[in-house]
Amino acid sequence: DGVNDAPALSAAQCGIAVDDATDAAKNAAAMILTTEGLSAVFGAVVESRKIFARLFSYVSYRMATTIQILIYLSVLVYAFDCCLDPLYVILLALLNDVTLLPIAEDRQTASAEPEHANIGVVLGFSLCLGAMQSLASLVFYLSMDNGLIDGIAPHDEAGYPTSVHAQNAIWLQVSIAAEFLIFAARAPGLFFLSRPSNELLVSTTLGNIVATLLALYAFADPLSWSEVGTIWLYDIIVLFVVDFTKMAYKLISNHGGAGIIDEATIEEENLKLRKPAEESEPVVEFAKTVEKHRASVRMIAEGAQAKSRKSGLSKSFIATGNTSRVSQKSFRAPGGAAGAKKSIKVDSLHKMTPGTAARLSTMYK
């Protein structure tokens, strides 16, 4: 890249300059390749999609918790005449803000297709999570007189609970449920199949422990250990219910239906297709060499087909949110009688190089 390429690099949406480019071209480019090949571009695309996933999970989680608190507290005040102490709301917001700081370093996966910021998609996803959280909290409130919380008389005798003890239980249930919600919001599939970063896991756990200790020892008319255990168990069950509701919403709306980029699988395929050391040596027995290449290509193709048959829609959808079959594209192989063209099906994320193309074409010659 010379000086004359600088205007084009500057005008491009993402100008890419090579390592030995002129200073003017490097200054105009958005990305500079410091190694040979284009693998850095692929890595940049993957990392940018991971950043987008982190932003989407944070925004959707924040909107979902806001919807939950707004709906739940409004219903408590206007329908059941239960006014929660403002201190609870302040502590709830403070704990959620502090424990969510590690989301910037969360372990995320890259989408298999480009994603775009769409407020309608974010709002719909957040509304689904927030509505389910609100419904679960309302069920907990209406069920406190059924043995979940001690000292709560039946509604038909003493009315709906508004005591300080009941408010402690309400606050702890909402606080723990809000902390657990980030695990459902961040995962493309079921939350227990997507491991969060250690920092995020530790921060949310510490936040729940602090909230539990406050409800046990700091507040007036504190909760008992049995009541705290009941609330923890209830919120864990709610997390599974909300997560399955999220998957149903994704299946119906096709939200995130492209699935994710499986970096481990791509690396495994690259190792299989790496140029063998003997290819650099002169070919002595041409027929045996060609047959060996054909056998290796046949083995890889059969393995990919078997894997595609085994990984049906349900398994892929549960793990990654993928609602479609593995997309494929056609590769035109040269050769054949009278210049006929034959199509070879390869995975859409497969890196096609001249060497790989030659190997794939040998089995059809």
Account of the 3D structure:
The chain is mostly helical. The chain contains 13 helices and four strands. Strands 1-2 form a two-stranded parallel sheet. Strand 3 (328-333) and strand 4 form a beta hairpin. It starts with 5 loop residues before the first helix and ends with a helix. The model is unreliable at 325-355 (pLDDT under 50).
Write a compact overview of the structure shown:
Helices cover 61% and strands 4% of the residues.
Topology:
Blueprint lengths: L5 H6 L4 E2 L5 H6 L2 E2 L6 H42 L5 H14 L19 H24 L12 H4 L5 H23 L11 H21 L6 H29 L9 H10 L13 H25 L2 H8 L7 E6 L8 E6 L6 H9 L3
Parallel strand pairs: 1-2
Antiparallel strand pairs: 3-4
Radius of gyration, taken over Cα atoms and rounded to an integer in Å = 28 Å
Largest sheet: 2 strands, parallel
SSE order? HEHEHHHHHHHHHHEEH
Mean pLDDT: 79
The number of distinct helices, counting runs of at least 4 residues, comes to 13
Uncertain segments are 325-355
Quaternary? single chain
What is the strand content? Answer: under 5%
Task: Give keywords.
4 strands, two-stranded parallel ribbon, 365 residues, mainly alpha
